[in-house]
Amino acid sequence: MVIFSLLIDVKFGILMIYTAIEVKNLKIGLIDLGSNTIKMNIYQCHNKQYQNCFYDANYTYIINHVQNDRLTTQGIDKIIQTIKMYQTVAQQQQVDLLSCFSTASLRHIQNQKQVVDEVFKATGIQIQPLTGKQEAHFNLLSMQTVVSESEWIGGDLGGGSLQLFCLQQQRSIFHQSLPLGSLKLYQQFVSDQLPTVQQARCLEEYVAQMLSTTCQKPNFSPECIYFMGGSVRTARYLISSQSDDFSTLELQNMIERCLSFPQWAKQQIQAIQPERLKTVIPGMLVVNQVCNFFGVSRIKYTSNSVREGYLISLLEQNMLDKGKE
């Protein structure tokens, strides 16, 4: 197994990878270090084609270990332990190449270099911190593989940030990242396991204000928005949608039911995905405000993620066999 790191420039190109292995029948492992979870996918790759053959998620809640804008020793240790576990899995799965990147989890901490250095010293893995714009770009690349329309809006709601992106006539109109993650907002606005009605309204107002002052709108009128992320997946299960498509009215009704009957909401969420008890309702509130902002009436969930976009960029650059300076 080869451990490698990627350096990403502001234009989202791969600056350097050096290995003599060609992109033919390779198993590539990607570790995604998020604010809420650390995930790993393993892909079987042949040239620019890939197939997911392994997935695992570990709820580490790294963002909970940030104090005074610094990741604590306990948080760093959680990252190291999880990466070591995934290294073992990668060896068992006979992975050829293993890489790790971070999203909002390390984006704004003051001791990012310390974290990266300590993880490298303990594991040999070089974490590649992505900027918000890079993450949104990889989200867009990933979403392009599952959306057939010529113009659409997409979103990725994570624990620490919200990415929004838009494609029109095969061109990126915008891709941006906002500090509106479900776990981040839970920490800011919620004092118990679930938000009260008042806390929910304050959270909604905050999200609506940020969207109106920082987010672009497309010059077309979309009917739906495509969304990635665990909070949206869990919301879909709560709504009992038999497909990946549900209406904003269904979402709004579920929000009001959860706020009106918190004990019922707690039981339902714990039955579906207990790890997301604290983040599902804040996540639904964010998605609802995004839908209001863009004027869409439907939400389409996709299981794709930033990891597929990262992999696509890597494969398209054809960097695994020739490198670039």
Describe the model.
α7 crosses α10 (280-294). Helix content is 42%, strand content 24%. With 325 residues, it is of the alpha/beta class. The chain contains eleven helices and 14 strands.
Keywords for this structure?
325 residues, alpha/beta, 24% strand, 6-stranded mixed β-sheet, single chain
User: What is the H/E string?
Assistant: EEEEEEHEHHEHEEEHHEHEHHHEH
- How many beta-strand runs? 14
Regarding quaternary structure, what we see is single chain
Strand content: 15-25%
Distance between the termini: 24 Å
The low-confidence runs, each spanning 5 or more residues with pLDDT under 50, are 4-21, 319-325
Biggest sheet, open or closed, and with what strands and sense?
Answer: 6 strands, mixed
Let me know the average pLDDT: 90
List the SSEs and their pairings.
Layout: E1 2-3, E2 26-33, E3 37-46, E4 49-59, E5 66-67, E6 70-71, H1 73-92, E7 97-102, H2 104-107, H3 112-123, E8 127-129, H4 132-144, E9 151-157, E10 162-168, E11 171-178, H5 182-189, H6 197-214, E12 224-228, H7 230-239, E13 245-247, H8 248-260, H9 262-272, H10 280-294, E14 298-301, H11 306-316
Parallel strand pairs: 1-7, 2-7, 7-8, 9-12, 12-14
Antiparallel strand pairs: 2-3, 3-4, 5-6, 9-10, 10-11, 13-14
Helix pairs in contact: 1-3, 4-11, 5-10, 6-10, 7-10, 8-9, 8-10
Offer a quick outline of the entry:
The protein is α/β, with parallel strands linked by helices and 325 residues long. It has helices at residues 73-92, 104-107, 112-123, 132-144, 182-189, 197-214, 230-239, 248-260, 262-272, 280-294, 306-316; strands at residues 2-3, 26-33, 37-46, 49-59, 66-67, 70-71, 97-102, 127-129, 151-157, 162-168, 171-178, 224-228, 245-247, 298-301. Helix 1 packs parallel to helix 3 (112-123), helix 6 crosses helix 10 and helix 8 packs antiparallel against helix 10 (280-294).
